[in-house]
Write a structure and sequence with these properties.
It holds the Pfam family FMN_bind_2. It comes from Flavobacterium phragmitis. InterPro entries: Split_barrel_FMN-bd, TR_PAI2-type. This is Negative transcriptional regulator, PaiB family. The chain contains five helices and seven strands, in the order H-E-E-E-E-E-E-H-H-E-H-H. By secondary structure, the chain is of the alpha+beta class. It has one domain: Pnp Oxidase, Chain A (Roll), CATH 2.30.110. Strands 2-1-5-6-7-4-3 form a seven-stranded antiparallel β-sheet. Helix 4 packs antiparallel against helix 5. The two termini are 28 Å apart.
Length: 204
């Protein structure tokens, strides 16, 4: 991912928090000479050795999985809030741009056994059911329903490199920076307002 130095985020705690909050990612690999991508939840976890990894699962019917054995190199892409930035918001002439937050993780993927896949599913469901009025638990599902779990491959990704971009108008002076935040807040667009919130955190 091309990231000018000004926009590089090397704060590991921030990156971890971002991955926890934006865990619906895109898994990309090469299968039979063709690039493949799947949109799935991919969770940052700690393995038995205390090392950070990514976990997830895909359908066994997904042809993307065919490429894992031949080439285990994968890219996981995670995106956060993003918004168009109009240059009419500056006190000088310039070009429009786009503000956004994104993380790319490069690593090596491996398929895990059924028992490990099941544990991953339990963690995933528990995470997203926590605020449900009647939370679903994998342990309570019938044998018939759980047969569907046989139709997935659970995987782990050994993290080799993390590239994180936080492009939030850091190149603007305080006057223009504050004006961008104000204009974003006026839009009533959830993405734009989320960008304004992130910008406010970066510069008081």
């Amino acid at each position: 991912m091309y990231t000018p130095n000004l926009y590089k985020n090397e704060n590991q705690e921030e990156i971890r928090a971002f991955l926890k909050e934006n865990s619906f990612g895109i898994l990309i690999n090469q299968t039979n000479g063709k690039l493949c991508a799947t949109h799935i939840p991919i969770e940052l976890e700690i393995n038995a050795d205390g090392k950070e990894i990514l976990q997830g699962h895909i359908s066994k019917l997904n042809p993307q999985a065919e490429g894992f054995a031949a080439n285990d190199a994968v890219l996981a892409v995670f995106t956060g809030p993003h918004s168009y930035i109009s240059s009419s918001w500056y006190d000088h002439e310039n070009v429009p741009t786009w503000n956004y937050i994104a993380v790319h993780i490069y690593g090596r993927i491996k398929i895990v056994d059924y028992e490990t896949s099941l544990e991953q599913l339990k963690k995933l469901v528990d995470k997203y059911e926590v605020n449900s009025e009647n939370p679903v638990k994998v342990e309570d599902l019938s044998a018939k329903t759980m047969r569907e779990a046989r139709g997935i491959f659970g995987f782990e990704i050994e993290i080799e490199e993390i590239q994180a971009t936080k492009k939030l108008s850091q190149n603007r002076d305080d006057h223009n920076y504050k004006n961008i935040i104000s204009e974003l807040e006026k839009t009533e667009d959830p993405q734009s307002i989320a960008v304004a919130k992130e910008m406010s955190k970066c510069r008081k």
